[in-house]
Amino acid sequence: MTQSLYEQLVMQTQMNYSQYYGVYASGKTPVKLTERQPLPYDQQIKAFAEKVKEADHIIVGGASGLSAAGGGDFYYAATPSYQQAFKRFYEKYHFTGAFAGMRHRWSSRGEFWGYLATFLHTTLHAPIREPYKDLQAILRDKDYFILTTNQDTQAIKAFPEEKVAQIQGDHRFFQCSQQCTDDVWDANEKIDEMYDYLEEHDTTTIPDVMIPRCPHCGAEAFPWVRGYGNFLEGSRYQEQYQKISDDLEHHLHDQHLLFLELGVGRMTPMFIQEPFWALTNNLPGAYDVMVNRDYQFLPQQIEDKGVAIKGDIAKVLKDVRQQLN
User: What does pTM read for this prediction?
Assistant: First the structure.
């Protein structure tokens, strides 16, 4: 199958990631960064707002930091939100975050699915988080597209589905764990049934008969997400890459094309950050605004075509929204 434009960019930067894995793992980047001192915060916010105003088109890259800034911070640590949402499992196992539970060696499939149902129910029923509401306001009168590596459905809740590409999967869908079929199917009703059973019986385990299975071969189902198992890179996956590729190809020659990197960490820079850097460097009308709580990476090659803001994403988006108003 022919790779789409954006998937080709990801594959190119994936090779870079593999070569310099130790650098990324230590929280750094192999890309040479600018030696210029960053502008004061208030000037960075003004620059962000001005770039939004003048943009012909905006492509947002939303990663884990964007959801975490709004309270979706339970993946890597036993935060208060984790302890509340996963109460029974935290009291029993004291996991240090949602992903730690996913890596646990469960004694039964019923308890594994009890944990997984809790995980999926938590994200699927979470309200739209504040940073996404501020992003809605910032983009309200603009032509835009959202690319996200988040699987938590926040982007889909906040923006029309045709304007969102979820290239790492989506908690709303199941796939066959054995990939016997290209199909993915709606998981919402089954997730609610499993979660309701846990609540009603005050337990961490569902009966084996409730475990979701593939309607084609009978194997266990699995969330259609990368990172936990045998991620299906089938037709829906290709559709997501095609959406961002079509949007990008349509706007390659815009006079003012704005890329926004929101919360890209060091685990997956190849999906958003480095493709955005390459595009900004190669497209005459492109500019990149990067917002991150922990890192302030502005590549030297785009130091005149970008700004890196180190700060809380929730505050930055709220300040930019206020500046635009």
Answer: 0.95
